[in-house]
Automatic annotation (TrEMBL):
Alphabetic keyword roster: ATP-binding, Helicase, Hydrolase, Nucleotide-binding
Source organism (scientific name): Aequorivita flava
EC number: 3.6.4.-
GO molecular function: ATP binding; hydrolase activity; nucleic acid binding; RNA helicase activity
Enzyme class of the recorded protein, top EC level: hydrolase
Span of the annotated motif Q motif: 2-30
DEAD-box RNA helicase Q domain segment(s): 2-30
Domain Helicase ATP-binding: 34-205
SUPFAM superfamilies xref list: P-loop containing nucleoside triphosphate hydrolases (SSF52540)
Source organism, top-level taxon: Bacteria
Helicase C-terminal domain sequence ranges: 216-378
Taxonomic lineage: Bacteria, Pseudomonadati, Bacteroidota, Flavobacteriia, Flavobacteriales
Designated name of the protein: DEAD/DEAH box helicase
Family: Belongs to the DEAD box helicase family.
Gene Ontology cellular component annotations, sorted alphabetically: cytosol
Length: 603
């Protein structure tokens, strides 16, 4: 808190900041706030998404305006309705100890009369999308002729969305001597043009290297035939039962198509794109926020409004046309101190784009292989086992237990386990039994010959124990006294993980783990049936692994209410796998097996 004070913020803001739970300023805040407080200047600030830009302009604006006046003094332009509302909420929260403060959100798709009425009451700050703002100025419903501060937030995106003319028009109604603060994640030509046009010798601030993505994000690519794209996507989802992801497509049409197919195949998916009505979009976002949707298929534009902090995976179903856009996409994960994975599904003709992106983000991609069917089965099985273990017992079951016990009285625990898993898996195993390898040859892979000499292990520690793949690899190397490349294919799931060593180390590894405890807990290692074909992917450009700092972030949702495992999809085409990623469905949709044709809500 003293760190915020040192930036020159007043007591009432410090109090609100404490209420928000912010402890130290982020880099962009540290750099921007003192300057903006200290002088009337224009500013161009480049920083990735999730770096706290809202507060970087929000705190100074709040401190500088006069709440006793009802004149509009600050205007914040942002590209989407979602962001507009998000910024408004943040401003209100920061200004909670400023009696008389009025922050009004102006955006399309809602009643213009209501918004005009709010403005009339006297808003010191207006947060607006350009389209509606221009409209309201044109109708004389809002007056910005006296503003002192104007923020262009996500300037690159506003320009991408074609708001250049609207912005020009809006700013022509504002005073020449105001201060303009531009915030952007990237600096394409268009942004420099706008900076030149509307600003006078702006102070420039860059956080991190330009265009470089968050350090918290690992980048992976998967090389497949273009026709296998969708199947590859499904496998990636299946191999990550806890996935909570945004999937990017290039067009609205593809977005809709992929989402529909996923829903058809029994996943908790939905589409979000510009052809949906505002209320449809709101519904989708609400379901995504409370995890009824695990896979949100989005266009780049629609995804800009997604302010969800614990997205585990960003999947680039198709690469964006503009390479710059990749940074925005991957910036949806790895936010607020959490780690994330950005996956790209590419066909051969697109591989060179990966290299271009690597140059831009200054990080290496890891070439990974689409998991095999057996690998997925194994992951799902362990996931189910763990979910059963963690399931809170529902006392309402007790009433039925005597009868259930009677039916099952003749079976041993082993038999029961076999049966439970057979119920869940037979269809699924059948589906994947003869599934083909979706990977196309890639120099970085090792051959099947190599795989024979490799042993894959399962270990019952994972994300939940604060491991990511780097820290687990380091941990194993130290423990097993093996060299840097002797442990590979480290794959960390929520509560368990996999790794490979050459088969010659197998005996030694099993010996060490025979009776091994970590923090008093028994650690089990088993030999996995799958050989774990696939790249000996070693860590791209990331720093050597530290354990995760933010524990609360990785443990998504409340484990207690998870009903365990994945569930069968009923009805529909018989050739699809009989499961979906995770069985978190809305409470009004009980899981009724075999009722046929049940569909999850479409967006
Ligand atoms: P950006 O606009 O750069 O994408 P936001 O302003 O939306 O980032 O901030 C991202 C998240 O980080 C928000 O949830 C915000 O409340 C939080 N945040 C901002 N500043 C801090 C801070 N100093 N400490 C902790 N959390 C912060
Ligand atoms: Mg922002």
């Amino acid at each position: 808190m003293t760190a915020f004070k040192a930036l020159g913020l007043e007591e009432h803001l410090l109090k609100a900041i404490a209420d928000m739970g912010f402890e130290t300023p982020s880099e962009v805040q540290e750099k921007a706030i003192p300057i903006l407080l200290d002088r009337e200047t224009d500013m161009v600030s480049l920083a990735q998404t999730g770096t706290g830009k809202t507060a970087a302009f929000g705190f100074p604006m709040l401190q500088k305006i006069d709440v006793n006046s009802r004149t509009t003094q600050g205007l914040i332009l942002s590209p989407t309705r979602e962001l507009c509302l998000q910024i408004t909420n943040e401003m209100v929260a920061y200004g909670k100890y400023m009696p008389g403060l009025n922050v009004t959100a102006i955006y399309g798709g809602a009643s213009i009369t209501d918004q005009a009425r709010q403005i009339k009451k006297g808003s010191q700050i207006i947060v607006a999308t350009p389209g509606r703002m221009k409209d309201m100025i044109g109708r004389g419903l809002v007056d910005i002729s006296k503003i002192e501060y104007c923020v262009l937030d996500e300037a690159d995106e506003m320009l991408n969305m074609g708001f250049y003319e609207d912005i020009t028009e809006i700013l022509s109604h504002s005073p020449k001597d105001k201060s303009t603060w531009l915030f952007s994640a990237t600096m394409p030509k268009e942004v420099s043009t706008i900076a030149k046009k509307f600003m006078h010798t702006p102070v420039e601030i860059t956080v991190g290297t330009k265009n470089v993505g968050s350090d918290q994000v690992t980048h992976e690519y998967y090389l497949v035939n273009a026709r296998d794209r969708y199947n590859a996507l499904k496998r990636l989802a299946d191999a990550n039962p806890e996935i909570f992801s945004v999937i990017f497509c290039r067009t609205k049409r593809d977005t809709q198509k992929v989402a529909e197919q996923l829903i058809e195949d029994g996943y908790n998916a939905a589409a979000i794109h510009g052809d949906l009505s505002q209320s449809q979009r709101d519904t989708v976002m609400k379901s995504f926020r409370n995890r009824q949707i695990q896979m949100l298929v989005a266009t780049d534009v629609a995804a800009r409004g997604i302010d969800v902090d614990d997205i585990t995976h960003v999947i680039n179903y198709q690469l964006p046309d503009e390479i710059e856009t990749y940074t925005h996409r991957s910036g949806r994960t790895g936010r607020a101190g959490k780690t994330g994975i950005s996956m790209v599904i590419v066909s051969k003709s697109e591989v060179r784009k990966i290299h271009t992106i690597e140059k831009m983000i200054q990080k290496k991609f890891i070439a990974k292989e689409i998991p095999s069917g057996m690998e997925i089965c194994e992951v799902q099985m362990f996931h189910l086992a763990n979910s059963i273990k963690d399931t809170k017992i529902n006392p309402e079951i007790n009433a039925y237990l005597p009868n259930i016990n009677e039916v099952l009285a003749d079976f041993s625990k082993e038999e029961l386990i076999q049966k439970v898993f057979s119920v869940e898996f037979t269809r699924f195993l059948n589906y994947y039994k003869n599934s083909k390898d979706l990977n196309i040859s890639n120099d970085r892979n090792f051959s099947d010959e190599d795989a024979k000499d490799s042993t894959r292990y399962f270990v019952n520690i994972g994300n939940k124990d604060d491991f990511d793949w780097m820290s687990l690899k380091d941990f194993l190397r130290d423990l097993l006294q093996l060299g840097k490349d002797d442990i590979y294919k480290v794959d960390v799931k929520d509560s368990f993980s996999f790794f490979n060593t050459d088969t010659k180390h197998q005996e030694m590894v099993m010996g060490i783990f025979k009776d091994f405890k970590l923090d008093g807990r028994q650690i089990n290692v088993e030999i996995s049936k799958d050989t774990g074909r696939g790249g000996r992917s070693s860590g791209g450009g990331r720093d050597r692994g530290k354990r995760r700092g933010d524990r609360s972030g990785s443990d998504r949702g409340n484990r207690g209410d998870r009903s365990g495992g994945f569930k069968k999809r009923s009805g529909g085409r018989g050739d699809k796998p009989a499961f979906k990623g995770k069985s978190r469905r809305s409470p009004d949709r009980p899981d009724t097996k075999g009722t046929g044709g049940r569909r999850r809500r479409k967006s």
